[in-house]
Amino acid sequence: MSGTVLTNKGLALITKLVAASTELQISRVAVGTGRVPSGVDPQTMVDLNEYKMDAQIESYGVSPDQSDVAYIAAQVSSIGVSAGFAVTEAGVFATDPDVGEILYAYLDLTEDPQYIYAETDAISKFAEITFNVLIGSVTKVTAYVSPGALTKKVDFNAFKESVETPEFDDSGTVEGISSFPSFLETMKSKMNFFQFFRNLKAGLQFVLHAGQIVNNCVTDNAGLPLSAAQGKVLKDLYTQLYSEVGNTNSRLDAPLYSSVLDYALTLSEGLHAVRFPGTGYTGTDLPDSSYMYSSATISVRATGKIATVLLFGISKSRPLAVNSCDNGKWKGWDQYVTKDDLGVRQYPASAEHISISGKLSAIGTWISNSGYYDEYWHSIRVNPSDTDGYFRSSAFSILWNCSSTNYGWCMLISDNSKVVVFGRNSDGWHWYAPSLTEVS
Q1: The three-state (H, E, C) secondary structure of the chain, written as one string
Q2: What is the pLDDT of residues 294-344, one digit of tens each?
Q3: Contact 26/135 with Cβ under 8 angstroms?
Q4: Residue 254 confidence (pLDDT) above 50
């Protein structure tokens, strides 16, 4: 609201504050029902003509358009008003370090009075008065903002939107946050709302989440933590293997034709190392009857009731197998393999692709002569050397596993619409489309 007059005492205060390089302290804003007496210059006034009540300061600051002008927004409402009145004047009061409180600026509202209804009236009134006052070269202005000041709907909606859809630096990088402890150092009470979210995103990268916790025994990533449950499993096995007393070793003098699990329940309490004679044990109670096992470690906590069997494969590529018994009931086998047992190997390791005929018969011959007969799957990319093969001129990949030149499986994965063909080598290679219809 324009028309604010700086009083003589206000002007003198500016001169004093600039010389002392101190701040301007706004002490209060008040409204009244009086008017400037005839012939009196408002600059000479030292108080309101007829004081009515103090207003509540809602906001203040230096004008963004003029550095030598400050704005003070004050509110007057019907709250606490016993009888209605018309606001015809208003004043800004400041603190003079030598004389105390002075009338710093005066505003005449006789031409635009604001009527304030009583609190008990059916109609209530809220008025906001904004003073634009000269501050000269004063570098800082302070005032007490009343906590009881009302918020305008437009300001409330703007604040509500900023909370519901906050905008903050979401790059995940904040200077000074390089670890979880340094992140915690930034989390302070009463910190800026948007700064909180910025720091939170930067700090969460140092927080362990469930997807990083290992709950198996096959990873080779030394930087990942072990889950408590998996750690307990390993600790229990460790305790069973190394903390028992009266451990014994034994060697079977004849092949074990009965169940190794039944045999374990006949042993006394303690740790037993058992070696199988001949070609190893291939009993039907194993997790995979095609595997052969050379020895076993058997931990017995209670004869016939609580035991754990750990079987060792004959070759290093065979898996370990573990089974535990509780109160005479076996829980089932858990098998452990290396990551290489689960992978696909490139053939040959130094080549990205080979060039052979795309005819299915030629592919079968090439696989049989490749010399790769083991438990692994192998793959190679093929650029066909002819155009009359099954996939015509389209490149394709071969994925195969053969135990010998006469037995194996193969899958061809093409870039064209035929997509995939399955092959089986039994009495020669046979090829099948996904519908299991034999093709050639």
Answers
A1: CCCCEECHHHHHHHHHHHHHCCCEEEEEEEEECCCCCCCCCHHHCCCCCCEEEEEEEEEEEECCCCCCEEEEEEEEECCCCCCCEEECEEEEEEEECCCEEEEEEEEECCCCCEEECCCCCCCCCEEEEEEEEECCCCCCEEECCCCCCCCCHHHHHHHHHHHHCCCCCCCCCCCCCCCHHHHHHHCCCCCCHHHHHHHHHHHHCCCCCHHHCECCCCCCCCCCCECHHHHHHHHHHHHHHHCCCCCEEEECCCCCCCCHHHHHCCCCCEEEEEECCCCCECCCCCCCCCCCEEEEEEEEEECCCEEEEEEEECCCCCCEEEEEEECCEECCCEEECCHHHHCEEECCCCCCCECCCCCHHHHHHHHHCCCCCCCCEEEEEECCCCCCCCCCCCCEEEEEEEEECCEEEEEEEECCCCCEEEEEECCCEEEECCCCCEEC
A2: 778 889 999 999 999 988 877 655 567 889 999 989 988 887 766 555 567
A3: no
A4: no
Which phi and psi (to 5°) does residue 164 adopt?
Answer: -70, -35
Mean predicted confidence (pLDDT) in 173-197: 75
| Cα end-to-end distance, the chain, whole Å | 93
Strands, sheet with 407-414, edge to edge from the N-terminal-most edge strand: 344-346, 377-382, 396-404, 407-414, 420-425, 429-432, 438-439
> pLDDT, tens digit, for every residue of 140-163?
888 887 765 555 656 556 656 666
Residue at 155: amino acid letter? D
Question: Would you say residue 233 has pLDDT above 60?
Answer: yes
CB 177, CB 183: distance < 8 Å: yes
pLDDT digits (tens, 9 = 90+) for 364-389: 888 888 777 777 788 889 999 998 88
Which of 337, 321, 333 has the alpha carbon at shortest distance from 217?
A: 337
For 255-265, what is each residue's pLDDT tens digit?
Answer: 565 678 888 88
d(CA 430, CA 272): 49
